[in-house]
Amino acid sequence: MIDSAGPRVLLGHGTENDFVVLPDPDGSVWPEQRLDAALVRRLCDRRAGLGGDGVLRVVPSRHVPDAAAVLGEALPQCEWFMDHRNADGSFAEMCGNGVRLFLHVLLTEGLLDRAVAEAGVLVGTRGGPRRVGARPDGGYWVDMGPARVLGRSAARIGGAEFPGLGVSMGNPHLAALTDVPVDTLDLTVLPGVDADFFPDGVNVELVNVLAAGDAPGGASAHIRLRVHERGVGETRSCGTGACAAAFAALEAGGRTAGTVTVDVPGGRLSVEFDGTTTVLAGPAVVVATGVLTPEWLAS
Ligand SMILES: N[C@@H](CCC[C@H](N)C(=O)O)C(=O)O
Description:
This protein is of the alpha+beta class and 299 residues long. The chain contains 6 helices and 18 strands. It starts with a strand and ends with a helix.
């Protein structure tokens, strides 16, 4: 997808977790040696580049060198691969907001039929295959797989300790439930974490439980969170973080199943647990489409 002016690019977000999206439908535009960490950092630069919390390359799985290793037997079923990078250029295993935007872009770019998307498609990610679907109301859902408990740890913010639950959603999270209103906390700097417990780094969520939702037949649980993302900084939303935080909120009440409404600075997500898997639902928006100029690419 290089027209005479330059390679095609889109800007989009899911609950204001924003991404630079690079369509690469035949794998020729953005091979890994071209889309290196330095270029990812430049694209995500909000002043000298386009700006984003990360980059999503939309590419067929067969053109991704490590796809076979991460997808195994599911490789033939995953036509498309979400090649995600954090704003600092690092790779992440999974991105819950990104994968909804990824499906939305497949639709808006004419790379997938709406009927197929509504039935749900398997998308390859570095965390393994994930089934993603479009809802008739315009929103998207993704089966994120089970939340895996890593154990108990704590985050330190401004001299205060926030005990939390380590949860893997493919990528690592520390979800700390607290009575301190999350809007009063300084998350602009990375919270202190136990680097031995999280050797690959960690995304940190600070969570207020607004409603436990544990009355029989009652409403869903309701939480509010802020997040500091590995490889990015504070963001306005994190889909995997919403799942980890929702799981921690249910676990605190002794439950493994239920629905949780998750308010993030950038909007609202919904997370459903049935005891075996986790389904995240929310919006995805394309803000702009255009091309990267040869002038900027060469600079
Ligand atoms: N914002 C994403 C998560 C992106 C990856 C994360 N920063 C990591 O390094 O694990 C989401 O919506 O899940």
